[in-house]
Amino acid sequence: MKTTQTRLAAVAALTSGAVAITCDKDSLQSAFSSIATVDFATWMPANSTFNIPKADIAYPTAPTQLRAACAVQVSVKNGTSNYGFGLFLPDDWNGRFLAVGNGGFAGGINWLDMGAGLGYGFAVMSTDTGHNSVNNNGSWAYHNEGAILDWGYRAMHGSTVLGKQLTTAYYSNDILYSYYSGCSTGGRQGLRNLQLFPDDFDGVVAGAPAWWTNHLQPWTAKVGSYNLPNTSAHHIPPTLFPAIGAEVMRQCDGADGVVDTIISDPEACDFNPDLLLCTPSKNTSCLTVPQLNTLHQIYSDYVDTNQTFVFPHLWMGSEAQWVPLLGLNAPNNLGPHYVQYFLQRGPEWQWQDFDYGVIQQADAQDPGNATADDFDLSPFMERGGKLLHYHGMGDGLIPTGSSVYLHSQIFRTLAPKDVDLDSFYRFFLVPGMQHCTNTATTVNAPWYFAGANQAATLSSSVSGVPGFRDAKHDILLAMMAWVENGTAPAEIIATKWVNDTLQDKVMRQRPLCMWPKKQKWSGQGDVNAAETWSCE
Ligand SMILES: *[C@@H]1O[C@H](CO)[C@@H](O)[C@H](O)[C@H]1NC(C)=O
Ligand SMILES: *[C@@H]1O[C@H](CO)[C@@H](O)[C@H](O)[C@H]1NC(C)=O
Ligand SMILES: *[C@@H]1O[C@H](CO)[C@@H](O)[C@H](O)[C@H]1NC(C)=O
Ligand SMILES: *[C@@H]1O[C@H](CO)[C@@H](O)[C@H](O)[C@H]1NC(C)=O
Ligand SMILES: *[C@@H]1O[C@H](CO)[C@@H](O)[C@H](O)[C@H]1NC(C)=O
Ligand SMILES: *[C@@H]1O[C@H](CO)[C@@H](O)[C@H](O)[C@H]1NC(C)=O
Ligand SMILES: *[C@@H]1O[C@H](CO)[C@@H](O)[C@H](O)[C@H]1NC(C)=O
Ligand SMILES: *[C@@H]1O[C@H](CO)[C@@H](O)[C@H](O)[C@H]1NC(C)=O
Ligand SMILES: *[C@@H]1O[C@H](CO)[C@@H](O)[C@H](O)[C@H]1NC(C)=O
Q: Where is the signal peptide, in residue numbers (predicted)?
C-alpha cells in the first residue's frame, strides 16, 4: 500500500503543469475520453438543496443543506455497457473519494446517500447501475444481457474508474484514499467490486449484503410461497405478525442475560412455538396447527433435493419486518422477477411453478456475474484493502444468517492459507436492527452508526453521527482510521435517539461486537450506557 508520503509526492508531481478544470460541462468534458458524456455540471453554494432530475424514480428524495460543491452527471456508452453516474465535488475537499451503492433492482443515482458522504468532504459518486427502475421491479432485465451485466458489476467499476478520473482532473490532485459504503444490493456491489477489481478501493464498508444473488432471489420467492395463497388454512395473516414477534420477544429477550426488548442472542433461545397455539381458552393472537407449520418453515433453512442447503432462514426477532416478504398477496417481486427476467423464464412463470430447477439454473448461469462468491479475498488483502461488514439481527428482508455464512465461507477459504481474517476483514452483527437501518418501535435498539442509507433515515440533511463525530461511533470514520492510521476497530458504538428524527437526546448506546464476540452487560450501572457493556 502506498504511504501518505508517496501519495503526497504524487500529488505534488501532478499539480505542476495541470490544466485547470472548472465546474462547467465543457470544461469537465475535456477530462474525458469519448465514451463518457457530461450531462450537466452545476455549482451549488453552501446549504443548497440538490434538485434531482425527474427521471431518477428510484431515488426521488433531494439531499438538503449540502456543502458547497460541484454537482455533475455523466452518461457512459462502452460497447454493450450503457450507464450513468453522479458526482459531488466539494469546494473543501478532504482529498478522498467515496462511492455509495444502490438497493434491490433499483436503477438510479442515489443522490441522497451522496449528500451524506459530501458532509465529510469526500468527492462522492453513485452509479445508476445501467437502467432506470424502482427497487422492486426487475422487468428491465428481460432480454437485456448488457443491462444485467452493468447491474451485476460493470457499472460500479466503470463509474468508479471514470469518477476518480474526473475527481483527479477537477482538483489537479491525486486522490489520497478511496472508499466504498453500501447496504443490501449496495453491500453486494462493494463485495463484488473488491473481488473483481481489488485496486478500486482502499476500504469497503458492506452492510446486509445481497451477496448470494443466485440463491437469495429465488429464496425470496420460496419463502413468500410458504404463507400463500392467502385463502389457505396455513396462511398467517399479517395482523398476527405482531403477536408472533411479541411471543418471540417474551421467550428470547432474556437469553442474552438482560431483559431490555433487544434480542442479542437469538441462537441461545430455545423457542417453543406451541405457546402460540390456539385453544378454546386462548382464541385471539394465536396460531392454528397449519399456521404453526408455516411458522416452522419460515424459521427453517431452505434445504432442497439431496439435502442440499440452499439458503438460511430469517432470524427470530425479524418479525416486525415480515410484511414485505410474507405479508403480501404474492411473493415480493424481488423473487419472481429474478426468475422471470434474469433467468429469462418470462412473465408466464409464476411462483406456483417454483422447483429446484430454478436453483440449478441460477447456479449454472448467475446472470450478470452478480453473485459475490469469490471467497478468496487475498488479492484485496494483499494490496492493503480493508473490509468492514455488518448485518442487522432483526433483518426481515435478507436473512442475517446469509452474512454469517459468508463470513464462514471466507474463513474456510483463507484460514487454511494461514490468513488472519481480522487483519483485514471484520464482521459485526447489530442486535435489533432491521434491514440496513432502523429498529422496531417495540425494540428500540441502538442502530445508528452512519452506515449506508442510515443518515437518510434520519433526514435529508444529516451526515455522520450527530454529537459523536469520531471513529468509535461512525463506521466510515472507523474505516478511515483503519486504512490510514492502522487503527483496527474492535467495537463500533451504535446509537438510538429518543426520537430518531431529533438527535438531541440519546436513549441508548451499545457496542457492536466483532464476530464471533457477543455483547455482555456488566450488570452494574446504566444499562443504556455503552460503558456498561463489553464484547466477549
Ligand atoms: C440552510 O437552509 C435551511 C433550509 O433548507 C434554513 O432553514 C437554514 O436557516 C439555512 N442555514 C443557513 C446557515 O443559511
Ligand atoms: C415494472 O416496470 C415496467 C417498465 O417500466 C412497467 O411496465 C411495469 O408495470 C412495472 N411493474 C411493476 C410490478 O411495477
Ligand atoms: C469499457 O469496456 C471495457 C471492455 O469491456 C472494459 O474493460 C472497461 O473497464 C470499460 N470501461 C468503462 C469505463 O466502463
Ligand atoms: C374465545 O374464548 C373466550 C374465552 O376466553 C370464549 O368466551 C369464546 O367463546 C371463545 N370464542 C370462540 C369462537 O371459541
Ligand atoms: C441426488 O442424488 C442422486 C443420487 O446420488 C443423484 O443421482 C441425483 O442426480 C441427485 N439429484 C440432484 C438434483 O442433484
Ligand atoms: C388475497 O389475495 C388476493 C389476490 O391474490 C386479493 O385480491 C385479496 O384481497 C386477498 N385477500 C386478503 C384477505 O388479503
Ligand atoms: C465473471 O467473473 C469471473 C470471476 O469471478 C470471471 O472469471 C468471468 O470472466 C466473469 N464473466 C463475465 C461474463 O464477466
Ligand atoms: C490518524 O491519526 C492522527 C493522529 O492521531 C489523527 O489526527 C487523524 O485524524 C487520524 N486519521 C484518521 C483518518 O483517523
Ligand atoms: C419525532 O419528532 C418529530 C418532529 O417533531 C415528530 O413529528 C414525531 O412525531 C416524533 N416522533 C416520535 C416517535 O415521537
A: 1-20
397-411: buried (b, 16+ CB within 10 Å) or exposed (e) per residue? bbbbbbbbbbbeebb
pLDDT for 308 equals: 97
Nearest-CA residue for ligand 6 atom 2 is 329
Helices (H) and strands (E) in the chain, counts: 16, 15
Choose the final residue of a domain: 368, 402, 429.
368
Q: What's the pTM?
A: 0.95
Ligand 7 centroid–CA 17 distance in Å is: 39
183: which 3 cell numbers?
A: 447496504
313 with 392, same domain: the answer is: no
Q: Which atom of ligand 8 is nearest to the CA of 480?
A: 13
Distance 292 CA to ligand 6 centre (A): 21
The pairing of strands 81-90 and 69-78 is antiparallel
Number of domains in the chain: 3
64 CA: nearest ligand 1 atom = 5
Q: Are residues 403 and 347 in the same domain?
A: no
Q: Are residues 160 and 184 in the same domain?
A: no
For the chain, report the end-to-end CA distance as a whole number of angstroms. 32
347 C-alpha to center of ligand 2: Å? 11
Q: Judge if 288 and 416 occupy the same domain.
A: no
Up-side HSE of residue 323: CA atoms within 13 Å toward CB?
6
Distance CA 332, CA 335 (A): 6
CA distances from 316 to 155, 396, 439, 443, 489 (A): 36, 10, 14, 13, 28
The kind and range of the H/E element at 243 are helix 241-252
Are residues 152 and 284 both part of a single domain? no
- Where does 259-356 show beta strands of DSSP type E? 302-304, 308-311
H-run or E-run covering 11: helix 4-15
| Cβ-contact 371, 212 below 8 angstroms | yes
Q: Are residues 317 and 378 in the same domain?
A: no
What separation in angstroms does the CA of 108 have from each of 37, 44, 187?
A: 17, 21, 16
* Residues of the chain under the 70 pLDDT cut: 1-19
Q: What is the pLDDT of residue 7?
A: 43
- Ligand 8 atom closest to residue 483's alpha carbon, by position in its atom list: 13
Q: Mutate which of 74, 81, 150 to test ligand 3's pocket (most atoms within 8 Å of Cβ)? A: 81
CA distance 294 to 310: 18
Same domain, residue pair 137 and 226: no
**Nearest ligand to residue 477 Cα:** 8
**Confidence at residue 19, expressed as pLDDT on a 0 to 100 scale:** 61
- Residue 47's domain spans which residues? 1-174
Q: Which of 153, 174, 195 is the last residue of a domain?
A: 174
- Burial-class residue 293 by CB neighbours within 10 Å (0-12, 13-18, 19+): middle
Phi and psi at residue 417, to the nearest 5°: -90, 15
